[in-house]
Amino acid sequence: MSTPEPIIKSKQTEKDVNGISTQVVCTEFSNYIFIVITQFGKIGTLISVSPDSRANDITTPTFATKVLLGKDEPLTHVCAKNLASFVSQEAGNRPVLLGLALKDSSIDAIKSIKEIIRSCQVW
Amino acid sequence: MSTPEPIIKSKQTEKDVNGISTQVVCTEFSNYIFIVITQFGKIGTLISVSPDSRANDITTPTFATKVLLGKDEPLTHVCAKNLASFVSQEAGNRPVLLGLALKDSSIDAIKSIKEIIRSCQVW
């Protein structure tokens, strides 16, 4: 039933981040990059991270974050921007749809998770 | 870098529905089933389909649909309910997160797409 070469590119991996099992799934759509980062097996808070077209200064791109599903907390926006901005930039400024279920949101953990996202590059 | 047996179960396929190439991706999370059905390569309109806990009559379950991203049109809610209700019921009443990008929303097409979803069962 499944196609030998899938049309929708998707990669996933599982790594330890500060001793916590972390699963990352990245899927490419023409208008979005979809990334789930979960330390609970849940899809978690769903956030859209979009290049902000209102920004004037083209040398420093800014991003608009919006919580679509789940708890809307300031830290969520910070983590989402931090994790997804580089993906959006590398993917031709496509917005990123991010599912985030983290036990550990430390700067150190976020840095490690960015490396895991990079290892699942589909864009 | 990738695990031999992925922890997050995901299946995808590509089929013709009334002559239109249709891609379906189903991914299982502990708290959601995530399904994208696309005839454009886009993630499309994002809808949550949840068993409605307010319903009194337990013999006929009802579902609440909410558009999280994209155009909020009545037909979208109808299609989403039609496509995702059986998945939610089969998956222990888990809600379904649905990405829907259809060129053809005819009853006939919806019926065929339900069969494709069934062939990508991850729940």
TrEMBL record, chains A, B:
The protein's superkingdom reads Eukaryota
One Gene Ontology term of the biological-process aspect is: proteasome assembly
In terms of InterPro entries, this protein maps to: Proteasome_assmbl_chp_3, Psm_Assembly_Chaperone
Database matches in PANTHER family:
PROTEASOME ASSEMBLY CHAPERONE 3
What protein name does the entry list? Uncharacterized protein
Q: Which organism is it from?
A: Sphaeramia orbicularis
